[in-house]
Amino acid sequence: MTDILNLVFRTFASPAELRASPPAPVPRSSALLLGENSLSRSVLLLAAVTAASQPGLRVVFFTRTLIRSLPASLQKLVPSPESLKKIQFCYPRTMEELLQQVAALHESPSTAPPSLIIVDGLEGFLLGSGGGSHRELHPGGQSCAAHLSALLCDTAAFLSRVLEQRSSSAGPCRVIASFQSEVEAGPASREPSASDPILDILDRYFQVRCTLDPDGGYEAAAAGLQQVWHVYLSGRGITEASCSKDCGDGPAVAREWKLLLFPNGLMEFKVV
Amino acid sequence: MSSLLPAVAEQLFRDIQRTYRDTSHIPDDLLIALKFVFGPCALQALDLVDQRSVTCLSSPSGRKAFQVIGASGRLYTCFVSCHYCPCPAFAYTVLRRNEGLLCKHILAAYLCQAMGVTQQESVSDQQMSMLLSGTAAP
What we know:
CATH superfamily of chain A: P-loop containing nucleotide triphosphate hydrolases
Order of helices and strands of chain A: HHEHEHHEHEHHEHHEHEHEE
Distance between the termini of chain B: 24 Å
Structural class of chain B: alpha+beta
CATH class of chain A: Alpha Beta
Structural class of chain A: alpha/beta
Number of domains of chain A: 1
Oligomer: heterodimer
Helix content of chain A: 40-55%
């Protein structure tokens, strides 16, 4: 999935950025998008539309939030209706429904299998909607997170084999999921991996972590921008790819990008 | 699933596979190595292998999963391409305490595969979906 994320960053980068940085081969591994959930959702939608714009690629998008509009960047760069038709939006309400719908993806052999499975807002499925401001972890939360992650990985592995058997260029099947850590959201901690038991589990199954981190500096205000976010790619999927690249001749994977979010909702990525 | 294991464990399963194929027997040195690498769950996993507790389920779509009958008779569904088991030991020892690579059910699935003693069973696509999602009655 990291290859599609990289494609998103490059698609929504300024033309000067693209001239400056040659495309880097990136690992096609599962990725966990970590950060504020409405921004993550916009990046996931960009990823879905970017992938669906590729010939032969189908996308399944699981979310609890009704998608009423596309991010402003997509409204400017209007995707074709054919591309949008290749995205199947599914709205499971609970973790059980999500597990059932992901588990059933192997059942329809007549239609082309998806090349990208997106899950928006894992925390919404993993955390119950308890009253008040404090949300309770789903009973057996760690095991539940492991079950869903393992099911996503196993499903992607199976669908990749199906795509390969069909001699399709649409393979392999990738997974990208977003998660907003409760620990990260706290003002005291800026290090999400510090003590989030769910994130520890998700990291076992997702090879790449893509962290969206708000810029605390004054560059944004000085430039008249609404918001600046740092986008970091990390995890064993990236380090393994970098190790293999060190031995070869290809350019390294860009590990850090900057996301500029303009007041009109437009998003632009810049290589750092 | 084997690429998820450390090289020493992968080599161990290869040795078991080769030796068992030639002699229908696992020699003591490999059993000791198994205990050394996987700890106390090695013996419990071998018990499950003796009882032929591991079944590879297949559905018409081509999807596969392992089903392991636990010591209590409960059925555990494990994935073929990554490590997950719904048993309490996996949740506590592997996920929570990070003290083991896998539980006895997953280890039994590896051993049965290496020894070629996995039972085979066909299920419908819908049954497979229910088993994978954990919504099928055990």
